[in-house]
Specification:
The chain contains 3 helices and 4 strands, in the order βααββαβ. It is an alpha+beta fold and 94 residues long. The chain has one domain: Alpha-Beta Plaits. The longest helix has 20 residues.
Length: 94
């Protein structure tokens, strides 16, 4: 069953944060996610929506996701205390 990991965050500079994440595109593409989308507003609020085919694939991707997010925090591009992660199974698709 598919599962989502949704991560909300606040960025001090969204363009630079996304450029930093882009440096890890090959690594992120290899995680086995069905897709990973990032949406942001003009006030620096962002959300990462990642859909995985199953919980095992999502859990296997956790270390890489933490590494990429950790680098943006270390670089001062994302506020670490703003990170809010939620996961949920797909229960219906329309």
């Amino acid at each position: 069953m598919a599962i989502y990991r949704i991560t909300r965050f606040k960025s001090l500079d969204m363009d630079k944060a996304m450029a930093s994440v882009d440096e890890s595109n090959d690594e992120l593409a290899a995680l086995g996610a069905d897709f990973i989308d990032v949406a942001a507003d003009s006030e620096g609020n962002g959300v990462v929506v990642a859909r995985y085919p199953d919980a095992a694939t999502m859990e296997a991707a956790t270390a890489t996701a933490k590494k990429v997010i950790g680098q943006t925090i270390a670089d001062g591009l994302m506020e670490g205390d703003s990170i809010d992660i939620w996961t949920g199974d797909v229960v219906n698709s329309i």
